[in-house]
Amino acid sequence: MNKILKIAFLLSVITITTMALNGCKKDWLTPKPESIYSPENTLVDVAGFNAALTGCALNLRTEWYGDGAPIITELLFSEMAVDGTDDKAGPAQNLNLQIRPDANLNSPDFNRIGWYWKAEYVGIREANTIISRLATATGVADADKKILAGKAYFYRAYNYYRLTNQFGDVPCPTKEVTSAKTNFITVQREVILKQMKTDLETAVLTVPWVADKGDVNRGACYHLLAKIDLSLGLFDDAIAAATAVISQGTFKLMTSRFGVDAGITTKNVTWDLHRPDNKSAGANTESLFNVTDRFGTPSAYRSWILDDVNNPNTGTYGSRIMRQAAAGVSIGTTCTTPAGGVGMTASAGVEFDMMNIYGRGIGRARNTPYHYQEIWDDPNDLRHDTTSGNWMTPQQMVYNNPALKGKDTAYGRRLRLYKSGLPNGNGTAGDLLCDDTLRRWFPWPHYKLYIPDADNTPMQGGQSDWYVMRLAETYLVRAEAYVWKGDLVNAAADVNAVRTRAKCAPYTAAQMSIATILDERARELYWEEGRKTELTRISYIFAKTGQAYKGKVYTLAAFSTSNFMVDRILEKNLFYKTGFVTPHGDQYTISPYHVLWPIPQDAILANPDGHINQNIGYTGAVANVAASDKIVD
User: Which of 35, 101, 325, 462 has the most CB atoms within 10 Å of its CB?
Assistant: First the structure.
């Protein structure tokens, strides 16, 4: 409890951050009595600094939790998913119309672009406060200072890595701010990343390899360093950093059964890897860095950053991932039996309690045919296996509405999409038994989504630690660096380390490309990676190096009008590619300038004594000035 209370010191930092970055209210400037949990009283010993670092992790954690979790917005700006909500206006679907600097950018009913801007700068401010206070902390030994500073560098670098690959050039404070500041300036993305590389090169000399689960270790620092090296086009450096993690021996891919369900013979290592009890288990050698979320954790520290914190559907109760990403087969009365009966219910305690096993999905994160069909090139892939229950399709569920019992022969039998034809989906449009296949009918990765839920009936997805970084991604990061260098043999070896664990046949060197790497990331890292972040990072590399994608060459000068990210989305995401129109009448659109998100307008307006640029394509960009080529606090 003392550790949790010490984390309350963050509230003072949060106040300063919000005031500086999002506007300044007059009463916030009125002096107030100093809290016993303020930085002056908390950041004086190792325990206080560790509590502050825990606060950094708590701030970062919210990305994967709650209703309309921020990670969904990353998926919507990718090939992987769209917002399937189709009964109201507001969800991020017509991106050309809805993604504006002055729009609602922080709501589960719209998008979470504004959450990323706020939360990442809060994380930066927390890290800056720790780094600044360490310099004068006389109660902390020099050796401990180096370790604590290294961990703070990690959190700061992580947040800047995300910001610069979401928003591009951004302000870059690197020192503690103790009063209202309204003169921020935009700094070049590459300048920021070079500083973060320098910081992490210090961190990997001091942060220990072994740490408590949920704490920063050297493997996580090297992993992040490798990704920043990739962002800078330093492929040899990225290979060296990734190799440091892979070769050191502390971390290894999990290739054998382990953990809570190891005795269930119908399951497999893919299932084991994603069980809530296994993610931070001592036996799990693959986890590099997790965020922790356990039953009973005070919800205020999970959701304060969300603008709609008073909304009861906000992320205060675990992951809610089953609600977000599973098909909404029980929504309304649209999934009917061949005889015309209402097929599904979400009520608890029924004979065939489908929703309490698979979650009462709403299809908010509606994955695409690219994700559930096109990338799966090996029938033996455990990550796409329906026999073991790793993947689910609506056809594997059964009609469970008790009103059907004794009246309709479909009761207890598998769902069908068509009245005539086979249950596997063959039929004609006129025979559809589900009139909304956007939101209510699609497969999903049950092994990722299944999080037992003690708070909600039917289950929505309960408490679970979550992977931020694990060794499988380190292999794929190194493989990507090899591809950029043209070393396809070594690239294939790294990709195959991940593929063969999933029982896939190995790739040949000739099959290696950036597209192959992205496909493997899609198979392995769904709901873990920030997909938009990675697509934008790769887009910068294409533009920086001049390497071609399918014969097309990109440039930094035309980045917001022609880029790899949006070209790939329009190639792979069926909904944006075809301009699909939802039952509500909203069309899916995306444009090249969406490679970067808009800088929230309130952040620009709250900075009258400086200049924060707006990204090209959004209102206000005509007032841009040259971004600074140096970091000036």
Answer: 325
Bigger pLDDT: 157 or 28? 157
CA 447, CA 64: separation in Å to the nearest integer? 16
Q: What is the DSSP string of 509-537?
A: GGG-SHHHHHHHHHHH-TTTS-HHHHHHH
Q: Are residues 50 and 198 in the same domain?
A: yes
Confidence grade of residue 212 (pLDDT, cut at 50, 70, 90): very high
Q: Which residue is listed with tokens 């209510």?
A: 440
Q: How far apart are CA 96 and CA 589, in angstroms?
A: 6
Last residue in a domain, options 431, 462, 493: 462
Radius of gyration of the chain (CA): 24
State which of 445, 462, 479 marks the end of a domain. Answer: 462
Give the length of the chain: 633
Closest CA to 443 of 343, 519, 345, 373: 373
Could you tell me if residue 337 is inside a domain? yes
191 and 326 together in one domain: no
C-alpha–C-alpha distance, residues 2 and 452, integer Å: 29
> CA 336 to CA 331: how far, in whole Å?
11
Rounded to two decimals, the pTM is 0.93
Mind listing the pLDDT tens digit for each residue in 74-84? 999 999 999 99
User: How many C-beta neighbours within 10 Å does residue 173 have?
Assistant: 20
Residue-wise pLDDT for 585-623, tens only, equals: 999 999 999 999 999 999 999 999 999 999 999 999 999
* 31 and 154 housed in the same domain: yes
Asked if residue 229 is part of any domain, the answer here is no
392 pairs with which residues across the strands? Answer: 444
The structural domain count of the chain equals: 2
- Is residue 258 included in any domain, yes or no? no
The residue written with tokens 């992040």 in the block is 224
- Read off the tokens for 309: 């914190």
CATH number at residue 618: 1.25.40.890
* CA angle, 265 then 476 then 258, to 5°: 20
CA dist 459 and 313 (Å) reads: 14
Q: Is residue 44 part of a domain?
A: yes
- Let me know whether 13 and 147 are in one domain: yes
β-partners of residue 444 are 392
Whether 384 has a pLDDT exceeding 70, the answer reads yes
HEC letters along 597-620 = CCCCHHHHHCCCCCECCCCCCCCC
